[in-house]
Amino acid sequence: MELNEAFRRIVLQHVRLIACFVITGLAVGALVHRATGKTFTTSARLALDTQDPASRTEAAAIADMGQAIATSPAQIRAALNRSHVRRDVAGVAHHVAVRPLGTSGVLELSYSDRTSHGAKTVADALAAQLIRTRLAISNGELQRALSASTGQIDGINRKIAELDATAASDPAAAAQRDLLAQQRSTIESERATLLSSAALRPKPSIISPAVLPTHATTSGLIPYMTLGAIFGLILALGTAGLVEMIRPTVVGEDALAREFDAPLLGRLSGVPGQASLVADTTSLADHIRLASEGSRVHGVWLVGAGPSVDLRSLAVALTRSGDSNGSSRAPKAANDPHARGVTVDVFDAHTWSPNGGGAGVVLVSPLALKKEDLIETNQLLELSRLPVLGLITYDGERPWRPGLRPVDPVGKGVTKPAQQSGLEKVTRSSSR
What we know:
Structural class: alpha/beta
Oligomer: single chain
Distance between the termini: 38 Å
CATH architecture of the largest domain: 2-Layer Sandwich
Radius of gyration: 46 Å
Largest sheet: 5 strands, antiparallel
């Protein structure tokens, strides 16, 4: 299937379906925005136990560390337990943001929630949990370093105590004792340096707790509606494709002419039977005359494909247009059957007889025809064995139903209701 044919079958043939799905998606997006679009946002400012950053890159690195800790599921769960607020951990992580305030070393932790009280409570709990976690990390490293240095000093002291007994009489023991004493002094100085560095390190603290937000921040309506429209369009295209897979449609004049293996004679701009559409049938009558002359037939049967339409009015209009065109042309021989034009009538399976001969078929089909209707029409043509002169197409979706009284295209009163198409009569006769 070509791309153009697929576009006509799936998109153009189901424009109303696609429009309904897209409008529904827009409405759903607006409803979702109305239900969940309003949120309350607040922020707390805090400082960690890091050195003041010298550049924005260092400040961004500190903020990234805070973001990683604040959005950790374990830390969020601990903060929610301490604040006694019931929220989804993943949802909280999605609404947490930590950013640096320039190169000051101060961080701003922001949180958005559906309630103002929840936003303030969770923001303060997350800030406090961030500080506790950072203190646990930094103090843990200091305690491990101090414990290691204390263990080394204790080991050296034991060795020195063992060497004190023999240092007076053994010069080698005395030298080893002095070496151990120097090592102990070095370790003690490193320990003192660690303690002094820890004392000079900034203490993490909350500089400004979160305030209770008084105004809700409304997210944009357009993104919600855009997503809804896209989702509706995807569903519509999938549904249209499924419909075409189950009940395929032949769309377009070229595709119909190719399926019926018939030349295209013309196109009506609406449903046959409307006075404004069948009144101007001059070009159609000329094309039918040329086709009948080429096939050497003197009569034309109109066979409707698809829904029932008023072919009687179209047949009368084509016959009268052919007669008027024949009288306006140069006179022909008296024995020429086409001198007076071509007689056009609606095919009737009950009155038609193959013994009559001398007639051809002109198909009248909408621009979009179901595959099953096309197959039934081809079956009728095979049974009748009539030559197919051509195809007339029409657009418009209002089919004519038996019982309506269409206006005579010439303006001389009202015609009778159209007879059923030959396809319908053959089908109903076989069902009996």
